[in-house]
Amino acid sequence: MALGFTAMAMMGIQFLLTARFRRASxxxxxxxxxxxxxxxxxxxxxxIFLHYLIIRINxxxxxxxxxxxxxxWHMTAGRISLLLFVIIISTSLWRKRLRIHYDEWRLLHxxxxxxxxxxxxxxxxxxxxxxxxxxxxxxxxxxxxFWLLLIIxxxxxxxxxxxxxPYRVKELRQDCNACWTLVxxxxxxxxxxxxxxxxxxxxxxxSPFHIKEHPFSFSSSAVCEERVEFTIKELGDFTRSIKNTHxxxxxxxxxxxxxFSVDRYPNAPGFxxxxxxxxxxxxxxMLRTLADRHEHRTLLLIYGNNSWEDVMFKDELQALxxxxxxxxxxxxxxxxxxxxxxxxxxxxxxxxxxxxxxxxEYEYFLCGPKAMSNSVQxxxxxxxxxxxxxxxxxxxxx
Length: 398
Fold this sequence. Notes:
Blueprint: H1 2-17, H2 22-25, H3 30-58, H4 60-63, H5 73-93, H6 95-98, H7 102-127, H8 134-163, E1 167-176, E2 179-186, E3 199-204, E4 213-217, E5 228-233, E6 250-257, E7 270-276, H9 280-292, E8 298-305, H10 314-323, E9 325-332, E10 342-343, H11 348-354, E11 363-367, H12 370-382, E12 390-392
Parallel strand pairs: 7-8, 7-11, 8-9, 9-10, 11-12
Antiparallel strand pairs: 1-2, 1-6, 2-5, 3-4, 3-6
Helix pairs in contact: 1-3, 3-5, 5-7
């Protein structure tokens, strides 16, 4: 019984973790919160299975028949809840393998989670024996009301507030192969203040109540509040539709979120950015912001891509080297003929050759494909760069 109640408490906490309270997530970053959400769910489903197995082995008569026509309603509710939790976990871990559209998965995930949670509450209420004391019943009732109010806030009140702060598509331009920059202007409000490197959930062409939102890093300067920009690469279901966006279409933003920002390190002697592909989006936001602030600290960008045609912001990066104390090192997997820059991958040898002599004093920002980020982290550890000076985000949602 203790395992069952513990798992139930964990499942309730899941709604709190995904409510996106900025003050609560600020010390950790939203990516860490979502990873904790994932692993807590795995732990909770394990406890639920143990709860069921112990009763099945030692107290089989308490479970009764599995036939829902003859079984007590609360036992059927518990079994269905367990099944729904298994479906939630399975479709979350293997969404891409199952080829489930991201928007469809989100609706399924939220609907099944609420249904499974309510059925589990019904199971506990139906058993009744363990909450029949007045104090326990009052505590459990308060617990239920808290989570229900939280669901109402996240799915009704928060979208209603977003609806009063719309944006319109001002511009759409292609930056490189399959990369597009979406420019939004606030309508009837002052816009959004954010730190360079942060991100927001974007809802495009839909009402915020439809739960069709996707996280993207700001690529514009944080100094310019009249408009915001997102540079998006065609990688998934939603991102492939960005090129079909029409000027004037409505958009909504939920943010800003994230701790991946140079603004958190005002006393750093300089910054080293290591990016791959679309990972340059939050990096360019930081560089643009630093240029607008007339930054004088030393900056280094190591930027890896497959080919020269895949390099984002190539002309602007060159221009930024004249406005900032910035050095840009391009690394191409398939360089063109007569290429004089670096080729291959970002390796320890390349880092040894490229990093400044006082490399251990800098703050490092990594953004790119997961394999690249993991490899560079390991290489920096081998170079004895302190772990607290290496910053990266863990999102893998497209």
